[in-house]
Amino acid sequence: MRAGPTFRELAVQALSSVERGYDLLAPKFDASPYRTPDRVLRPVARALAGLGPFGTGLDLCCGTGAGVAVLREACARQVVGVDFSAGMLARAAAALGAPRTGPEVRWVRADARALPFAAAFDVAVSFGAFGHFLPRERPGLFAGVYAALRPGGLFAFPVAAPPRVGSGPYLALWGFDAAMRVRNALWRPPFVMYYRTFPLPAVRADLVAAGFTVTTAALGELGRRPDGSPRCRLVLARRPA
């Protein structure tokens, strides 16, 4: 089993820029707790299978390619993984190799806030990357995804329910975000990664403002909270046909 990053390696990453940090982390990223786990990927893959078939797919901020693997099950012709870390893209390409069957896979180095595509995809996904974007950047990010989709195209991503106020997970996320804000106030370059800046109501409003029609679907396999609400929802933002 591949060893995960050491504390020292994580500290060096945290004191780097986002891009440089992920270049450094790439060789061990899949053995770290930051990779989206299969228990999240599998329900999303099953949900997309019921919404397709799709011809072409985009994995936004693809990292080492977890979302590309999901899209290869849902798309018939081509899947593109986009990330601005050359190290993560290299790791993704090495891990996936050259698929012998299924859609063509391409890797593109680009900033998600300036996607080099126009009406090119039937579906786009993203996993675990939205904490790297400040709330003021979301409108531009979503507008770029909207432009990259064909009319009728779908932008899908999971959003976890917020932890109960005062609970252990709530305090852990609050503490992490507070530490990152202090770090970014004292150290340059900044490393943007926050866990509490992507609330579903605000995200839905920004998606609607970008032109999407938005629904959500419960990912029931991931469980429910004590009040019966789902622990995780799949956001389904569609560009009108």
TrEMBL record:
<keyword id="KW-0489">Methyltransferase</keyword>
<dbReference type="GO" id="GO:0032259">
    <property type="term" value="P:methylation"/>
</dbReference>
<dbReference type="GO" id="GO:0017000">
    <property type="term" value="P:antibiotic biosynthetic process"/>
</dbReference>
<keyword id="KW-0808">Transferase</keyword>
<protein>
    <submittedName>
        <fullName>Class I SAM-dependent methyltransferase</fullName>
    </submittedName>
</protein>
<dbReference type="Pfam" id="PF13649">
    <property type="entry name" value="Methyltransf_25"/>
</dbReference>
<dbReference type="InterPro" id="IPR029063">
    <property type="entry name" value="SAM-dependent_MTases_sf"/>
</dbReference>
<feature type="domain" description="Methyltransferase">
    <location>
        <begin position="58"/>
        <end position="153"/>
    </location>
</feature>
<dbReference type="GO" id="GO:0008168">
    <property type="term" value="F:methyltransferase activity"/>
</dbReference>
<dbReference type="InterPro" id="IPR041698">
    <property type="entry name" value="Methyltransf_25"/>
</dbReference>
